Amino acid sequence: MSEDFYVRYYSGHKGRYGHEFLEFEFRSNGLCRYANNSNYRNDRLIKKEMYVSPAVIDEIKRIIADSEVMKEDDSEWPTKNVVGSQEIEIRFGNEHISFETAKLGSLVEVQESKDPEGLRAFYYLVQDLKAFVFSLISLHFKIKPIN
User: Which is nearest to 3 in space by CA: 32, 34, 30?
Assistant: First the structure.
């Protein structure tokens, strides 16, 4: 894997329970880091780290490429607010993007934005990546082995 690749996603806010966030990243060497911090009902920081195969990294690259988010521009997207923010940073070969926007609660917020097409690409990419990460973590850190 000689190609330079990195993706990091963050979603969080600071509120009544302190700084609560979800963050994950993938590196070209297969390192995956995940952190989830919630102080609600005295929960604490959950951190997971694992290495994934080149096939998994290739699938993440495919998801990103198919989303066409690398062509977008976040200048017309909603800015972070009291509800929170979300960020994505992607380095894919010679391309590098770093986007920041408000937390999006629904597709309606996307459709009512100044750049619904670009924000929709971001919104669906984030949904796909989160589902992928949660599946990986669930499979990798299974407490009971599958018989």
Answer: 30
Strands in the chain per DSSP E: 5-15, 18-27, 31-37, 46-51, 85-92, 95-102
CA gap 104, 113 in Å, rounded: 11
DSSP code string of 83-117: TBEEEEEEEETTEEEEEEEE---SHHHHHTSS-HH
* Composition of the chain by helix, strand, coil, percent to 5: 35, 35, 30
Tokens 């806010």 belong to which residue? Answer: 13
Is residue 108 classed exposed, middle or buried when 0-12, 13-18 and 19+ CB atoms within 10 A define those classes?
A: exposed
Task: Tell me the per-residue pLDDT of 68-87, one tens digit each, with 9 for 90 and over.
Answer: 999 999 999 999 998 899 99
- Is 0.85 surpassed by the pTM of this model? yes
Closest CA to 28 of 62, 12, 52, 64: 52
79-133 pLDDT, tens digit each:
999 889 999 999 999 999 999 999 998 899 999 999 999 999 999 999 999 999 9
